[in-house]
Fold:
Amino acid sequence: MAVDTQTVGTDRGHTISQSISFLAWIGSTANAALKALQLARMLSTLSNMSDYQLSQIGISRSDIPDYAAKLMAD
Structure:
């Protein structure tokens, strides 16, 4: 039985390329989900602080979303 190695190699290379692309997509999706989870937890934690505690770190309640976004950017 003869096997055309050119065809097999090309198909295998394409399959490997698709697998790598899929893994990269999973990685970026997981990273985005993790960041969203971290932001939600930070917003929740800051929102549960008293006004006095927030003033101790230099923010007001209305500053919480911007402050959390700034922390996530750093």
Residues 5-47 form the longest helix (43 residues). The radius of gyration is 24 Å. Residues 33-74 form one domain.
